[in-house]
Records
---
Amino acid sequence: MEETTLVLIKPGGVERNLIGEIVRRIEARGLRVVGLKLMSAPKALVQEHYAEHKARPFFKDVVAYLTSGPVVALAVRGENAVKAVRAMMGATNPIEASAGTVRGDFALSIDDNLTHSSSDVKAAKAELKLWFSEKLPR
Ligand code: CMP
């Protein structure tokens, strides 16, 4: 089924000039970028984005990291886009991510795991609403 998902390229990914590489992989897979913005994310937006992790010990650090520099927000559309993108990014902890995934190829630390992508269709809907308040193309 066609789905749209949210991908964030975190400040470490932007800093390391990985925007093009990550977008290239997404497009090469056959997925379509239907929204794209480079922005300094407001703290309140990031706190809401990670609200489910509020009680976790890493919450403060992940919010600080996401607001430490520019991020790229992408709306990515295609067949089974949510699962396809998650698989392409690799395990949350890069040390467990397979080679050939973004994290398996470019990251080592869970605190700097380069990207976020929506965990399921429900989360994708909520996250896209948060990061793309403007209407996305159909
Ligand atoms: P992300 O997919 O953006 O969702 C939450 C983020 O918190 C995660 O990627 C990591 O960057 C960060 N994080 C730090 N420590 C942990 C942890 N122990 N478990 C899950 N996420 C963590």
---
Amino acid sequence: MLVTTCLAKYTVRVKTEFILSAASAVHHAILAHESEIESLDRAIGDGDHYINMKRGCATVLSMRDELATFAPDAALQRIGMKLLSTIGGASGPLLASFFIAMAKTAGEKGAETLPQIAAAFAAGVEAIRMRGKADIGEKTMLDVLIPVARTFVELTAQGVEPDCLLAAIRQQAEQGMLATRDIIATKGRAASLGERAIGHIDPGAKSCQIMITAVCDLIAA
Ligand code: ADP
Ligand code: MG
């Protein structure tokens, strides 16, 4: 495996400042992929996924001054609550539940070390799974998020080097996103298309891969 020989012990601290930088990086990345995200949702959805994501990013950035005064878990909770009422579509409540669950786990267990941050991320993904009543292999954002969460938890438990961790996460996100192209959807709007959805990447999987890659790039910079 890519990472087993990379060993390191490290402690990082998620600061609200980092959350705001990540929000800005995600915003730029979503804007840079407008036509791709839009055309994917036009092909197998209703064409609004890019607009929904852009609105979500703009909302978070508009809260920047307020969020800067909060501790990280409180900022994540506030973001989740706000997204619940602003993004809309199927993805709105799902992404909102991600932030709310992440906030809860970060508040209870801390977000000081990489394993703790990975645990908070995994709790967020689990909340999406519960809320959407979906799982891996249903041609949704979870095809990216579940493998990334698993990799994040497993590799941070092993204490791998940050570079190796980021490379493995990027790779899982890309692989999960591409895997949605060859399967039918059993959740979301694309489920009604049956075989006609085959050949198209899921828009939510694509936007999650874009967001995860953007955060990895930010950390690596
Ligand atoms: P809508 O489908 O209401 O138009 P969006 O276009 O914003 O909302 O989001 C569509 C994306 O939401 C899909 O591409 C898929 O990744 C994700 N999605 C839809 N339903 C579910 C679900 N039940 N569980 C997880 N993700 C889902
Ligand atoms: Mg849509």
